[in-house]
Amino acid sequence: MTGVPMLSGTAAQVAAEPGLEAFGNDPWWIVTIKALAIFVFLMVCVLMMIMADRKVMGRMQQRHGPNRFGPWGLLQSLADGVKLSLKEDLIPRNVDKAVYIAAPAIAAVPAFIAFSIIPVGPEVTMFGVETRLQLTDLPIAALLVLATASIGVYGIVLGGWASQSPYALLGGLRASAQVISYEIAMGLSFVAVFIFSGTMTTSGIVEAQKPLWFAIILFPSFLIYLITMIGETNRLPFDLAEGEGEIVGGFMTEYGSMKFTMFFLAEYVNMVTVAAVSVTFFLGGYLAPGPLVSVWPGANEGWWPALWWLLKFMAVMFLFIWTRGSLPRTRYDQLMALGWKILIPIQLVWITVVATMVVLGNEGFGYAVTGGVGLGFVVVIAAVLAVWRRQHNKSKAAESAERVEEARAMRTDPAFGGFPVPPTTAPHYGSSVLAERTETNSPASTKKREEVTGA
């Protein structure tokens, strides 16, 4: 076929994914080792990410960051965890204790489950057993990520509701609205991946990116996913659910000790999970970059792919720190407008473009035709958005000017609590006196006085 490769359909699924028969046949002790390895990896990532968060932002802001506990401050996160675990665990009065205690666990557990379908490498030999570097895979594994993300927000909402605090309740409501809006855009970014790969299995999506990563082919979806993953994890500049300057500490206001630690753990584990999903869906997963494969044919064999996956994962995690240290917190109305008015409409149009390209590829058209059609769609959409944006700015400026005029009229109208003021164009006493003095001291007036005096 000369069209777009890896299209939807049964034949494309067989060609694109290695098959689910590789899973479910491992001995129980191999499954246990994989599960423990995932748990240890996530916990170590949380400790290292907290430390890197503070150290890298310290360098960005020309300070050292934590550097007292351990060599170069590497054990600072461990010290903070011990400190939090030793704090007194207080429960406020009149709270729903069952929900109050269960909320942190509800927020943390789903993030651990989602990582089970992430492929870290191909089939390798582990203690004499041939197995894949992935705990499991499902025909709808990609949907598991969205399901666990939607369940995790229940912990935040219930924690804010059970705390019986207005600040915590506002934080929980903010988190729920934020997750709903950004999860829709995130799910739509996955749709383009499903269309192009023809499968929902994570291992099949990785194998479908052997010719070219989806971050290049589906760049708009990749860019929108990066934005939505930051909004999904409540990180700066989208951490409105915590909003220290507005609602104290948000949904975590009434929590302390290990319960606060669980919420903190849930946030960072979610960061690790969404970063791993971005590597799997858009950055080729464990596949080495194309130029490296052409130079080194064995780059995608053995345990080496796990190294490429780790490097890509670290790059995405650095993006979290970079955005937090560079961008200020947005207003809540701006956050909602970005999700509902910009990201979701763009994704809907982009999915239409991708579906059109795939249909043209199935009909036998070449890369030039399908690419040209896709580029034409993008140019037309960009032009329409530019015109709309210009007209929107004009109407917004006119509306703002009208509001200013109304405010001025209200300030001078006694019916609205204002008071009448003299018009700004009326002559002032000082200006008239100055004009009279200027006329009196002019050369013509002086000459006339001398003539009269001499006569």
UniProtKB/TrEMBL annotation:
- Kindly list the biological process annotations in GO that this record carries: aerobic respiration
- Look up the EC number in the record and give it: 7.1.1.-
**Keywords for this entry?**
Cell membrane, Membrane, NAD, Quinone, Translocase, Transmembrane, Transmembrane helix, Ubiquinone
Q: Which domain of life is it from?
A: Bacteria
What are the transmembrane regions? 28-52, 98-118, 138-163, 184-206, 212-230, 268-286, 306-323, 335-359, 365-388
The membrane topology term of the UniProt record is:
Multi-pass membrane protein
Q: What does this protein do?
A: NDH-1 shuttles electrons from NADH, via FMN and iron-sulfur (Fe-S) centers, to quinones in the respiratory chain. The immediate electron acceptor for the enzyme in this species is believed to be ubiquinone. Couples the redox reaction to proton translocation (for every two electrons transferred, four hydrogen ions are translocated across the cytoplasmic membrane), and thus conserves the redox energy in a proton gradient. This subunit may bind ubiquinone.
Q: Which PANTHER family does this chain map to?
A: NADH DEHYDROGENASE SUBUNIT 1 (PTHR11432), NADH-UBIQUINONE OXIDOREDUCTASE CHAIN 1 (PTHR11432:SF3)
Q: What is this protein called?
A: NADH-quinone oxidoreductase subunit H
Q: Which organism is it from?
A: Murinocardiopsis flavida
